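Hey team,

Filing this mostly as a record. A colleague (T.K.) asked me to run one chain through the structure pipeline before their review meeting, and I want the input and output archived in the tracker in case anyone asks later how it was produced. No errors, nothing strange. Just documentation.

Input sequence:
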Amino acid sequence: MKSIAVSAAEILCSSNRDTESSGPLCSPWTARTNRRLYPGVVWLGAAAAFMIAAPAAATSITVDLSTTIRPATHAANGSLYGVLETRPDVTTLIAPLHPNMFNNPAAVGSGKQQPVGDAIVVAGRVAPTGATVTIRLADWFPGWYTFTTMTDWLSKIDQTVARRKAANLTNIYAYELWNEPNGTWGGDPNSTSGSTKPLAFNEFWAQTYAHVRAAEPDIKITGPSLAGYQSSYMSSFLTYCKANNCLPDIIGWHDGSGIGGNVTSYRNLEKSLGISPLPITINEYSGPGDITDEGKPGASAPIIAAMERQGVQTACITYWDVPNPGRLGSLLATDTQTNGGWFFYKWYGEMAGSMVATTPPVADGQSVDAFASLDPATATASVLTGGKNDGSIQIVVKGFASYFGSTVHATVEHTPWVNKSTVVTATDTVSSADVPITNGQITISIANTNATDGWHVIITPVGGPIDAGAGDASSSSGAGTPDAGSSGGASSSSGGRSSSSSGASTSSSSSGSSASSSSGASTSSSGGKGTSSSGASTASSSGGATGSSSGSATTSSSGGMATSSSGSPTSSGGTASSGSAPSNSSSGGSSGSGSGGSAAENSTPSGSSSSSGCSTAPGRSRGVDAAAFIAFAAFAVRRRRSSKHGAPSSEG
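Output structure:
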């Protein structure tokens, strides 16, 4: 068995205090105050850094490309109250995630639980991305749902239905009839005991179900949306619903690290009651740290992996950060700037083809885990991993199809996480190398890992992804559409697929401040594939060692692939923003256009800012004054899925 060993430099980010309290609305729990030291690892990649060696003790995860689970639909790529009427920006911040479903209130404003985030308006905004929206009807009421009467309640539902029909929305995932009844209605769904409501929840459900079904026969109904899976409550609910012909179309509850066992328990309950398997939505999920885990790659990866294995249809990141709705479930550091979690979910959204089997050392929803996809149309395998580990992770990949050949190209990318409020504008390329398939498998070792960050492994044939041309089959709808995805640069192609990726090397000072950067260049191709990659180096100047470099490399392919690369040195006292950023923003540095030219508003910038204004020409490497490292060029394949809902409507 062979593995890639990668040299690395570790930067320890300064201690950060998360002190954020949840407001009285949206959650019955108290947000946690937590102080933690998070390591941010920045990798030094060069051809000389790769060697074939046996790894040290590591956590091993197996990926079997020959065993498919289901189509890649980005099931857990969504959020509760993560999109509002005017933000975040659809083009630069929402669309790159290729989201599946969002959950938003039926009504907002005075006298309602939520002040903003109207589901009807949001559904219109996100329709062009292919995303759907669940309408949370309970949010008509203020506080923790001050219920009035059934007459008033059904009248409110009629208003929502009328607005939905007037807007002619076709991307409504479901009507959610109530939220967390085991906390907001009463502990026994068959009784009013201990409840201030005028009738038992099950009776309330049956009346509401009948009303919504009559008004909207073609839109699905979901519930009961329990506050955490509770087997006894779910059993009483399902037993009543089966007897009264009001089973939800989609069963739903809120969950976290226990999701794997809870889905198994639920499926067993269905069987015992003689109910056919229902689709599952987990319309609120996060790690056990709640607000400190929301959007964190290391907390999300094991939960998403479990949901993909268990076939959960849709899931939404929670809303613990009550003062800041509209941030995609804590994937944004500000209303307009990304954090490290955004990039992890962007990688998730770029998965195409089918999800494949992964086997972690222990599937407990917190320890390191992975989820993976295989797109036969482009011969591209993608693996996302994160979670608690012993400092290194081994990804064992087997089940290669013949189109991969005897040697594959493997690229490993990294996204850091300090906390949800820390701006991250680029990811790091950890390694990029050709790896021979030995005994039907390869092993990729990632060193200096931690429990907070996320990693992305991309595997293609050595010559690059297969160019399937226009009209590749979509894994979610089966409809063939041209496909364009980008990470780090604007790209275009005529009749094909284009992608870009970035690599960066970094030197850190003894003060512990970190700097990371990467840049992208735009490429275009006609009928083929456009790929761009770039190398950039940054230095943090805080009395410590500084270093910078600029490297580029060009590769060619006989299959019509056009490739360009460039490098641009940057220097700042904090974080250098890069071409991988989705908006013109930075933290501690400046952002703008570099080798890729200027970026228009609401479009992904195609270059990185440069303190010297220098850039390298394609195909040439260029030295800089403080050259200390060689930044290598690495490409990563991006594939944007087709819309699941037919032709998208215009932005609302």
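Quick notes for T.K.: Residues 504 and 518 are 5 Å apart (CA to CA). The domain at 73-349 is CATH 3.20.20.80 (TIM Barrel).
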